[in-house]
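Subject: Transcription elongation factor GreA structure
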Amino acid sequence: MIDKIPMTEAGHAAMMDEIKHLKSVERPRIIRAIEEARSHGDLSENAEYHAAKEQQGWTEARVAELEDKISRAEVIDISKLSGDTVKFGAKVTLVDEDTEDEAAYQIVGEFEADVKKGLISVSSPIARAIIGKRKGDSVEVATPGGGKSYEILKVRYN
């Protein structure tokens, strides 16, 4: 069975944009760089040629990786979700029960997570601890710095 990869519509669109950019901008640029480097003669000591070939390898691997993820994508339309329990796509506001610091996160697919933007992976320790819980529930999360207690302040899907 092929493992489906849950992702939001925004995450899916971002992957498609990256594939398009790699194929329409990066590939042609790298091909030109390889041709330019080849025109300089001896390839065995040509740093530009080796750098361009390395870049080509990375780009082709990244395209293959993204296309694989897209082929297994399970795009979840968050606008159709609702309810008061935390699940994939939820925007959750938590308060640290020790410091009273509040943090807001949206639970997204593993490959679209970006903590700086408040997007946490569905497989992260915090997401695993809060999935299935409701507003007002307290959860314990094992973090690298030790256990933390959070209370769920808000759960929304808009």
